[in-house]
Amino acid sequence: MSDEITTLKYVSENTTIPVPRIYDYDTSSDNPLGAPYMLMEEMPGHHVHHLRIPQSQVRHVYAQISDIVLQLSKLTFPRIGLMSQQECVFEDYHRVDAFHSPKEFYLARAQRFYEQQMQQCDVNWKTLAWL
Fold it and tell me: Tens digit of pLDDT for each residue in 38-60?
């Protein structure tokens, strides 16, 4: 949860992307609630049900998404990984040290995928992982 808090703060300070304000949080279980929590403001807007955007709003929604993607693409970071720690987490929650380059990151992901597939019985997945 501390990484989500750090990321929200960073995005808020370095872009105009709307993010919820965090009123209070505790990442430990040693609090009156007995569990980590984050109390944040509700964001204004409308729910998009089942990703069905009314035709009259498509241009507006796509413009907003484009603006967000453009702002995020301009943010730079010294390493690839979690912002509050010097590590990276893969899909299966496997933690490794943060990476210095995209090449290191993708090679490590490929190696992790290969190792996982070698433990499986399906020869097709093993072949794909090897390739």
Answer: 999 998 877 766 777 888 988 99
Q: What percent of the chain clears pLDDT 70, i.e. is strictly above it?
A: 98
For the chain, the residue count is: 131
2-46+54-73: what fold?
Phosphorylase Kinase; domain 1 (3.30.200)
Reported pTM = 0.67
Q: In the chain, list all ranges with CATH 3.30.200.20.
A: 2-46+54-73
CB 117 within 8 A of CB 128: yes
Where b means 16+ CB within 10 Å and e means fewer, 54-63 reads eeeeeeeeee
Question: Strand, coil or helix: what is 126?
Answer: helix
